Structures are given as structure tokens and as C-alpha cells.
Amino acid sequence: MRKPFRLQPLGSVATIGVREGLVANIKENLEKVRERISRAAQRAGRRPEEILLVAVSKTVAVERIQEGIAAGLSILGENRVQEAKEKIQALGHAGASWHLVGHLQTNKVKDALALFDLIQSVDRHSLAEELDRRARATGKRVDVLAQINVAAEATKTGFAPDELRSALETLARLEGLRVRGLMAIPPEPQEPEDSRPYFKTMRTLLETARGWRIPGLDLDALSMGMSADFEIAIEEGATIVRVGTAIFGPRPA
């Protein structure tokens, strides 16, 4: 059985036997991202160790992911259950843990529970209830984040900010879930600063939710910020950033 989700320092390194030359590109990218994380944390008066780096590996080949793990990646994020299933079958959990960061269909819940250490995208009550039902049936609790539609975008899912308290109170009653915090995907920014208002809102929502002291909740995680704006997210309180392109390079069209 996998260990429950924990916030872990950026520096944990898993080793896989691949030639050193293969990892140079990803390793250099990873070092640059970690340096940017460190500088952003320092600007905000925070410790870099407070920030969890999730390397988003959607559409990235297994061989490239192996290189990333060898370079020091310890947490990988996937958007689709089927794609993740094939990768996890090839790579396992020994070298890295896996987070689901994309939309989860209810009919994929069984597989998701078997695959992921943290499901970041619980965006509706029906999904939470299905996760709870299946988790309890296997005698486990699943670590999750509640996804917030922070910009009220019609094309995105998630709980509305003004329904956060009722949503969290409902989720807290589901014994198969361990709600660890909040996640958001703001509108794609033209400039990194464009995301700051949304990140400020998310930080305020998390602080407010902690103040409600809802029994059964352990709200220690705030997942926000991607390759285009993760430094701004860190300045505004992110504890998890989801970075793909800045590590693995541009994805295929």
C-alpha cells in the first residue's frame, strides 16, 4: 500500500540507471526551475522547501519521464487516467509518486484510485461521492484537493468560490476522502502578473477555509501555478506548483 500524500522537499532524488548524457537537457531545465522556485520563495519570505514541485508529464514519452526521474523529479502529474495507466505500468511507484491534475470522469474513478497518490481535481460532488464509495469499499482513504473555478469560466469545472464552505462541509463527511487543500487553474495569462489576482483570491479562500475549522479537514496544500506563472503563484502562497513545459520542453501540437 502506498504511503499517504505528504508535502516533501524539492530536493528528494530518485535514481534510475540511465546514461548521464541522456538527462542533460531535462536536468538543466529542472535546475533552472528549482532556482526560480527558490528565488520566488525568498522574495515572499518563504523557504523553498515549502514548495512541492509536480512535473506535469502529459504527452511526454516514458523514456523522457525516466530521464526526468533520474535527474531528480520525484512527483509526476498526469491529466488523463488511461495515459497515466500505461506510464505507471511501465515505471511504477518506486521512483516517483503520481498526481492526477486533470479532469476525472466518474467511470475512471476505480483506476484513478489504484494509480494516483493525490487526486488534485475533485471538482464536483458526484465525483467526490464516487471516490468515497470506491475508496471505502477497498478500506482506504484517498488524498484529494478541491478544485475551485476561481475565474468562473464556463469552459472549466470546479466549485464556485461562494460555495466553498458548503462544498468542504460535504466533502468532510465523506470518510473515504482526506481533503488536503485547494487547487485552481486560472485563465491562461498573457503575462505572469495576469494571474496574480486569481492567486490572491485562492490564498484568501484557503486562509478563510482554515478559519472555519471544519472537523475532518487538514487543509495544508494550495496547488496553483504552471510554467507560465508559477513564480507569481509562489509569491502568493502556493505550496504546490504544476510545471510541465519548463521541464520537459514544448509539447507536440
Description:
- This protein is α/β, with parallel strands linked by helices.
- It is built from 9 helices and 8 strands.
- It has an 8-stranded parallel beta sheet with strand order 7-6-5-4-3-2-1-8.
- β2 (75-78), α3 (81-91) and β3 form a beta-alpha-beta unit.
- α1 (24-43) packs across α2.
- It is globular and about 45 Å long.
- 44% of the residues are buried.
- The model is unreliable at 8-23 (pLDDT under 50).
Task: For the structure shown, list the relevant keywords.
253 residues, alpha/beta, 9 helices, 8 strands, globular
Question: What's the helix and strand layout?
Answer:
Elements (H helix, E strand, L loop, with lengths): L23 H20 L8 E5 L5 H10 L3 E4 L2 H11 L5 E4 L8 H7 L2 E5 L2 H13 L4 E7 L15 H9 L4 E8 L11 H17 L8 E3 L6 H6 L4 E4 L1 H4 L5
Helix pairs in contact: 1-2
Sum this structure up briefly.
The protein has 253 residues and is an alpha/beta fold. 38% of the residues lie in helices and 16% in strands.
What is the succession of H and E elements? HEHEHEHEHEHEHEHEH
If strands are numbered along the chain, what order do they take across the biggest sheet? 7-6-5-4-3-2-1-8
Distance between the termini: 37 Å
Alpha-beta content class: alpha/beta
Q: What is the averaged pLDDT score?
A: 92
What radius of gyration results from the CA coordinates?
Answer: 17 Å
Strand content: 15-25%
